[in-house]
């Protein structure tokens, strides 16, 4: 064996390298701990122009050969400038701080490296994931025939839900036809209905599933940014009159922009009467499943045919940790494909539990381990209490902005978002848009805080997404004042520029 071979083998994780494993991981953990401890703001404000040359100059064919040197370099290209979601003034997207039991799970699952496709690669991990699926389905109330599978995130969960709905709709159409229609003909007639506030992944799923370009129909929302059920019923009726087949209605329990929850009981009534698959995208609102005080906000979700949950949004889990749940576990067969080397048909006959039979992925991480340890160490009530705290904080934040004459607020969220904009006195709509865009960019450049942006009825607004229980009303008030200062400065500067501009 050459010296290179010997040196390479020294990096393998096995019984002979346990000392090195403990030492190297401890060094990495120490670097992260030091960086998190030193972070006085969520972001450094670094720009792509500044960081790209540093990353681009690294020669990946010339290893450093030293753990500390590699960690120093990692600090320079990532750790120093990473966006730290744990910081109380990170208020932008649906990124949560994570709990320590889940980080423990991440470390354990990465080292063991189980693959959750077949039993002979995962053994107990398969049973643990199934138990967590059963537990989540029980929290939703889907019934004894429910099943599901962990996924990489809400987009994948929604994609698989639409796949199952498509196949069920195709089966119904073909089964009820006197002459078997061609599959492309049926797919061209399929429609998905969601609200104007629904997630873009629904449109993306329709495209990936080969549906027509106009397959997704959006219905308007009410003043509270919730799906209008009268419009939903009319849209279903119109589709039937036009010879189209509604394969699914996608309701949202926690819209990305407004954190609103569609009227699930009424939507369920309409879907039941029409014989339509009801999917609930609860990627954000799934934290209510463990809320000690707000579970009722999800009433009606138990009537869904499928549900998306993102534990890495409101269960305080590291990315990735999501799942798709279905009321009738048999529908998961639409994602099954038997391969002789992996999950032959005889494995089903032998009762061997293979998760690849339910997933659109093959190799898949044991992400369920993180949630398992979180539940076993903290318990669901503790997770729900954390989520309740951020929902309470959002209510306080909404009142803070609503009472401030410098700002306008949009619909009040039952979850943890606040949509608002600064209103410079006497400014025209274009200047209002520009001032708010500038305020968000200036805030990010400073690194003092991060907020998100969106559009409401064509106008630019700002958004807080609150998922950190450590954030305080004082933090939000401070960020509010920074935004007001940046926006007001821009409005004054723009007005001065217009006045000084020569005429004619």
TrEMBL record:
- Show the InterPro entries listed in the entry: Aromatic_deC (IPR010977), PyrdxlP-dep_de-COase (IPR002129), PyrdxlP-dep_Trfase (IPR015424), PyrdxlP-dep_Trfase_major (IPR015421), PyrdxlP-dep_Trfase_small (IPR015422)
Picking any one GO biological process from the record gives: amino acid metabolic process
The UniProt record lists the keyword Translocase: no
Among PANTHER family, the record links this protein to: CYSTEINE SULFINIC ACID DECARBOXYLASE, GLUTAMATE DECARBOXYLASE-RELATED
Q: Which cofactor does it need?
A: pyridoxal 5'-phosphate
> What family is this?
Belongs to the group II decarboxylase family.
User: What protein does this entry describe?
Assistant: L-2,4-diaminobutyrate decarboxylase
Q: State a single Gene Ontology molecular function.
A: pyridoxal phosphate binding
Name the domain of life this protein comes from. Answer: Bacteria
Source organism of this protein record: Micromonospora sediminicola
Positions where N6-(pyridoxal phosphate)lysine occurs in the chain: 313
Q: Which UniProt keywords apply?
A: Decarboxylase, Lyase, Pyridoxal phosphate
Q: A single GO CC term, please?
A: cytoplasm
